[in-house]
Amino acid sequence: MNKKIAVIKGDGIGPEIVTEAMKVLDKVAEKFGHTFEYEQLLMGGCSIDVNGVPLTDETIAKAKAADAVLMGSIGGNTATSPWYKLPADKRPEAGLLGLRKALNLFANLRPAVLYSELKGACPLKEEIADRGFDMMIMRELTGGLYFGARKTEEVDGVVTATDTLTYNENEIRRIAIRAFDIAMKRRKKVTSVDKANVLDSSRLWRKVVEEVAKEYPEVSYEHMLVDNCAMQLVKDPAQFDVVLTENMFGDILSDEASMITGSIGMLASASLNDTKFGLYEPSGGSAPDIAGQNKANPIATILSAAMLLRYSFDMDKEADAVENAVNKALKDGYRTGDIMSEGMKKVSCSEMGDVIAANI
Ligand code: IPM
Ligand code: MG
Predict the structure, then answer these.
(1) C-alpha 142 – ligand 2 centre gap (Å)
(2) I need a surface site. Which of 94, 97, 317, 338 has the fewest CB within 10 A?
(3) How far is it, in rounded angstroms, from Cα 280 to Cα 306?
């Protein structure tokens, strides 16, 4: 097959980790007889430096014209980077939010799996890590607090900031359907996470999820309050299969879930619309502190490329090959600094990419 992949390397460690994912994709193309054509696009801080804005119409149009988008990470050090002197809607993160909205990428899949080889890197107690876990966080990605109206103004002489959290039933229904569909292919359990004891938007969330659940009698489901979920994730992560939640809760819980896998450098993600199109990026940030040093962990980005093959290109064999290649690298003892433990072989970002590509 001949496929067009738009590539947004982005900022910080973005260029390094994406280069490794492309190395692995090239190996897949060679082994399985495909052609992947890449087009590099700017978004985030690097776009601000060139275009003055984090996201241009050109990037949106070219991303739309591709079969899928592979992304690294965007943003810089919020305390020191000049990007953060700009108004909020001109900063790198606004570019990412704008791109997700423009491409209608409402469904964000973030799989958090504890690899048995990485049990030592899991910060949880041994008896919890020993049970392992394999969950899929389904985060709603184009609604809620991150997209509601916001303002900062003076009210009676006092500076006051307002953000608004809005969901309509259709936005909730479409992500809930995705979550139940995915649960059907997994262990058939959905935990819907909300704050229904306080928020109206969460009470609507619960009602709509219950309606959708009726259509999936084989899937068992439960509601869980977000504060309790944060606690359960470190107490008993094995209980979760599909975790369905709104935008901000999913942002926070997915970072927590990634940390218990051993490192945020392990968590892949797919952001999908209602077609086969998707944007694939590691869940972690741009890690400006280690950028350019060839020590970032490229595994989350390589696993995101595997999700790209599976969800946008229907290339299941190829995606399996990438995931197996990552497993083999870990089994063979290769570790970047973030997941390093005694007796293992410490490798750089590019060496990890080489090892995984060679395993394809
Ligand atoms: C993520 C990131 C983004 C988000 C930021 C960079 C806007 O934290 O993908 O989780 O909050 O969605
Ligand atoms: Mg986040």
Answers:
(1) 14
(2) 317
(3) 9
